[in-house]
Structures are given as structure tokens and as C-alpha cells.
Amino acid sequence: MNDSATGQHRREHWRLNPAIDFLNHGSFGATPTVVLEAQRRFRDAMESDPIEFLAPERELLPKLDRVREVIAQLVNADARDIAWVRNATDGVNAVVQSFPLKPGDNVVVTNHGYNACSNAVRYAAERCGAEVRVAEIPFPIASPDEVVDAIERTIDDATRLLLVDHVTSPTGLVFPIEAIADVARRRGVRVLVDGAHAPGMVAIDLPRLGVDYYTANHHKWLCAPKTSGFLWVKPELQAQVRPTVISHAANRPIDGRSRFLSEFDWTGTFDPSPLLAVPAAIDFLDSLYPGGLTELMQSNHRLALQSRDRLCAALEIAPPAPDSMLGSLVALPLPVSDAPLQKILRDQHGFEFPIYPGPKPDTRLMRVSLQAYNDVEQIDRLADLLPKLLV
């Protein structure tokens, strides 16, 4: 079976509109049918006996702990250090709103950061009289060293916290987190990683990364249902980190559990089915290739490189980043224009992917995402179309 036929075959596992070439897995993910069915079974069980299913003192916590063990294994962490959040933005907010900033301190973000999370930093800093500094990382970029150098130049003696992406949302770059963390650690700066896109795209070994906080989504590259993510915090810092919603466990932690886990496990009535379906999502992804999730990530990376090369040829531009800095997202510069190109591509040609301002003024980027249901024929159609629309 050739690559295109394989992609078409795998597309049958998702409920995606067949009239759309969906090249935007990176925004909200897409959940396979088998995972949605697993979620539905959890919801049915919850509605058949809501108290027994949902009350923390009944069945809920053991179910959450089983998922915690699955995620802990995926990221090589201790399950006791993993809390649940709705998404990575929720996790970033929990850390920065809990962080002990004071007037004169500063927090460093990058110009490749996710706007929502950068806004969370600005909000927390403004409330405390702290400053937000932006590390200006180039794009196009020649080497991971340029990321480390830009961050090192921006950190100073007043820097207390660095927020950095593992995989950048606007530019699709895999940042060298270990090297960044080493620089920050030598300067006494704590590191918070927005890993929204990382699980299911790149391998994660949290102890090896050397960071202080790490938050990520399950609904993107792990293909779990929406509103499901995790927050990992080093044990010695967990007493400082509180959820953005304060509830019962603030003064009534659950016996045998840290306040960290108790507070994040229960912030009030919620639907735990997206979280409980995460193991089904990982099992499904593991089943797509003989080598499991690892082989899937490698396959998506190869397709991303192939797609980049074909689109760069069509646009007559050089690749904007080295192969080593790509996972399964590809961001490419486009000529600036007033034409509503994204709307034209969607409404007239059936392509779904974002086009948005770049990290520098008067620049524009397009971003395509490559998941198991995509194939190179979709990219070839796009590559043939783009030069005609950009005339």
C-alpha cells in the first residue's frame, strides 16, 4: 500500500469532513471514532450513577489515578508529580498566578510563544508590578543555538521565571529545552515549559529536560477528546502551585494525597470523560504502526519534511528551519497581502489550515499539520494551487 492509500485508509478512523483537506490538526486536534466511543461509555456510566462515578470519595480518584500512571509512563515521570488541567493554557495560568513575583522582578517569554500564555504572564506580572521581557528569536532560523543565545541575552539578574514552548505554535519549531534549561538554571531562573504540542509529536523525558514546570495537552497530538491536559511540577515546588479555581481541597485535602493533587483533582463539578479516554487514545495511536507511537511520530516527521520541501519548491523559498527543529508542524512565510487567503482556500478549494501574522512586523505565515490521516497528495494539491493564488 503506497503512502497516499495508507493515509486515506487511516482517515477512515476519524470523522473528518471528506470534502475538506484537513491540514490543521495542530489547532484543536481531531479525535478518532474509537476514542469518542470510549468517552461516550464513560459519560453513559456517569449519567447512570452520577454520585458513585463522580464523587472524589467514591470511584473518581482511582479512575483519575489510572490515567495518571499512563501519562507518567509516557513522559517518564513520577505519577505523584502530575496534576490534571483542562489544557496547557490552564496549566500556564496556574503556575504564573501562583508564582511569587514582586516589584522589580521580570519574567521572560519569547516572540514565538502562544499568545494566550504570553497574556497569562503579562496579567500575573502586572498584578505584582513585575516586568515582562521578550526574547527575540529569528525566523527563519539556522540553528537551535540561536534560540538559546536569544534567551540568554534576555535573562538578567532580575529574571525569576522563563516561559518557553517545547514546540512553538506559530512557527512549528522544536526548541532545545535541555540547553535552555541549563542556561536558566545557571542564572537561578525557573523554567516553565508550554508543551501543548509535544505529547504525541516528540519524545518527552521530563527528568532529563531539567525544567521546573511542564504543562501539555492530550487533545492535540495524542488525539484525546478536548479539554484534557496535564501539569507536572517538581516536588519541591508543588506546595506553591495552586489551580486557578480554588475549591474544597484548599482546607480539606484528601487523606493520603498531597494538597497539590487534591486541589487539581477536584476544582468543582466537571466532566472527566475526556481525561478518562486518554488511555484509549494512546492505545489507538500505538496500534497504527508496528513500532507504536514512536513509529507514528517518526512517520509524521518524515511527512512534515516531505511536505515542507514540496511547498518550499512551489513558493520558491528556502526551508526556514533545519530538519532537527521540526516535528510534524510546518510553518512557512508567505508574501504579505490584503487578500483573505485562508478564507479563499477553505471556501473555494477545501483546504483547512491557518494563515496569520509572523513574529516580525509585516510578515505572514502559513502552517500545516501532518497527522496519520494526512498524505502527500493533499500537499501536492496545495503546492500546485498556492502559486496561482499568490500572483
Low-confidence stretches: none
The level of helicity is 40-55%
CATH class of the largest domain: Alpha Beta
The separation of the N and C termini measures 37 Å
Domains, number:
2
Q: What fold name goes in the CATH topology slot of the largest domain?
A: Aspartate Aminotransferase, domain 2
Q: Give me the secondary-structure category.
A: alpha/beta
In round numbers, the mean pLDDT is: 95
Quaternary organisation? single chain
Radius of gyration in whole Å, from Cα?
Answer: 21 Å
Query: What count of helical segments does DSSP give?
Result: 16
CATH superfamily of the largest domain: Type I PLP-dependent aspartate aminotransferase-like (Major domain)
Overall CATH architecture of the largest domain: 3-Layer(aba) Sandwich
Helix/strand order, N-terminal first: HEHHHHEHEHEHEHEHEEHHHHEHEEEH
The main sheet orders its strands as 2-8-7-6-5-3-4
Largest sheet: 7 strands, mixed
Tell the overall outline: globular
Number of strands: 12
Strand content: 5-15%
